[in-house]
Amino acid sequence: MAVDRDHVLRSAAALLTRKSTATMDEVAKAAGISRATLHRHFAGRDALVRALEEHGIAECEAALDAARLDEGSASGAVRRLVREIEPVAGLLAFLYGENELWEDGGGDSWSRLDLRIASVFVRGQQNGEFRIDLSPVWLTEALYGLVASCAWAAQAGRVAPKDFTHMITELLLGGALRHSARPREES
Q1: Nearest to 165, CA basis, from 106, 92, 87, 97
Q2: What string of pLDDT tens digits covers the 187 residues of the chain?
Q3: pTM of the complete model
Q4: What is the CA radius of gyration of the chain?
């Protein structure tokens, strides 16, 4: 019987987004295969995590494509992106927390994602939609952080999953302070 690699990756992603410390035995069980079969496809946890990284990047690229980032307003593009990325937010949260993926500065694939997302923030700054005192790189990192945080909070039952897009976009695009209630900066 041939093992469906995509099924194994999706099963591993589903498990590891709920339990990041899951063992290879637990991953194999979740995928419905033996540990030996899992090891034939992924030599160890590092190989599995790297395969999940490739899978996650492909899912993110598909979400970026579906969000039609070049259409309409930049804020509309951000809202569409968050909505499209929600189905893989748990996997992104897992990958975001995997330190070994970031030890070498990340790869070209992550850089491509970063550039595509940052370009939306650049466009929004150029057309006067977004603040110019926050760099597009920082706004991109903030988006990743909010997606991961919201995924973790939703998985833990601390926030309603149905509010995912609203919570992230309102905080990112609107900020935490009410515009009419901005305090004076302290010196």
Answers
A1: 87
A2: 567 888 888 889 888 888 888 999 999 999 999 999 999 999 998 899 889 989 889 999 999 999 999 999 999 999 999 999 999 898 888 888 776 666 665 567 788 999 999 999 999 999 999 989 999 999 999 999 999 999 989 988 999 999 999 999 999 998 865 555 555 555 5
A3: 0.83
A4: 19
- Both tokens of residue 79? 């809202």
DSSP of the chain = ----HHHHHHHHHHHHHH-TT--HHHHHHHHTS-HHHHHHH-SSHHHHHHHHHHHHHHHHHHHHHHTTTTSS-HHHHHHHHHHHHGGGHHHHHHHHT-GGGTTT---HHHHHHHHHHHHHHHHHHHTTSS-SSS-HHHHHHHHHHHHHHHHHHHHTTSS-GGGHHHHHHHHHHH-SS-GGGPPPPP-
